[in-house]
Amino acid sequence: MKALVDKLYENHTLSKGEYKELIDKRNTELAEYLFEKAREVRIDNYGHQIYIRGLIEFTNYCRNDCFYCGIRKSNHQVERYRLTKEEILQSCLVGYRLGFRTFVLQGGEDGYYTDDKMIDIIQSIKSNYPDCAITLSIGERSYESYKAFYDAGAERYLLRHETANPKHYESLHPTNMNLDKRKQCLYNLKDIGYQVGCGIMVGSPYQTTDSLVEDLLFIKELEPHMVGIGPFIPHQSTPFAKKEAGTMELTLYLVAIIRLILPTVLLPATTALGTIHPKGRELGILAGANVVMPNLSPKNVRQKYMLYDNKICTGDEAAECSKCMKKRMEAIGYQVVISRGDHKN
Ligand code: SAM
Ligand code: FES
Fold first, then answer.
1. Over the stretch 57-67, which tens digit does the pLDDT of each residue have?
2. Which of 57, 66, 137 to mutate for ligand 2's pocket (most ligand atoms within 8 Å of CB)?
């Protein structure tokens, strides 16, 4: 089985059958070997540097009803909020002073933020912080909207594909959402010139080894600049409340595989990984990840952006989160750097 890891390390790709074997026949020893190789590739490309992104969760209104998501529109327990442009800029100011040079604007699909409003927000951030990158993560929009945001100064876009298997996609979403549309958005974003991120939840309900293999093949085909993967974690007020969470073990294993498929990819050790295990983010870095995304949202709204139960860092100030992250990374021999943290190519 180590030969398969070596083959992936050399060629950055495997056949369907080989990926399946690599996942199904995994054991602790093989995982350690895989992590070693993934770390080696990560260090070759990015040294021991950790890129940080300041996550600003600016709205929890959403028109979608994804079965897994805590802020889905049918969850009437959620107290909804929107940040004003001034509040977003204030979060950027706090972040800038803490050393952040990338701001990620994330939210539900909220029609209140029309193209004009988004353009105004993007341009304001860009003119105040010309040395910073803006990442958007606001779901599916038209080609024209994506283009307008890009022209206004947004350079990166995160849109997890969630699963590359159409049937699996249907089991996670209501019928008005479909995988083709989601994939088309990713291709549109790439075409416009964005640095694009796709991704999945590991252990989402009805996920199989076969669907994971399809995810890996899709990731290879799309060649994104970033891949966001974290475990699925149930939220008590969703249809998936009683489903099992994904495991840290499989998440780390997939992080390492993705590092070998795309050696220079930007790979976050996600908040969800830190939620299922106290050392999840550190272990993510040691499995080949090179990015962390501390929360910059104002403290008073953090409890309201509960995508899943027990999400971490919802009671902290941005400065505390940032300090905590630096310490955690230093403890495992890595350094948080003040940098936009662009993709190597
Ligand atoms: N609305 C945007 C979108 O759909 O891309 C961005 C916000 S959405 C909340 C961001 C990501 O959170 C989703 O792509 C999904 O993978 C993740 N997520 C949602 N619910 C989750 C859960 N219960 N466990 C783990 N991750 C979850
Ligand atoms: Fe829209 Fe989760 S259902 S952000």
1. 999 999 999 99
2. 66
Residues 6+ apart with CB under 8 A from 63: 73, 108, 109, 110, 111
DSSP H or E run through 336: strand 335-337
The residue type found at 322 is S
Residue written as token pair 């640095």? 195
Nearest residue (CA) to ligand 1, atom 20 = 69
The hierarchical CATH code for the domain 2-337 is 3.20.20.70
Q: Is any ligand 2 atom within 6 A of the Cβ of residue 201?
A: no
At a CB cut-off of 8 Å and minimum separation 6, what does 190 contact? 196, 222, 224
**pLDDT tens for each residue of 175-210:** 999 999 999 999 999 999 999 999 999 999 999 999
Q: Is residue 71 lining ligand 2, measured as CB closer than 6 Å?
A: yes
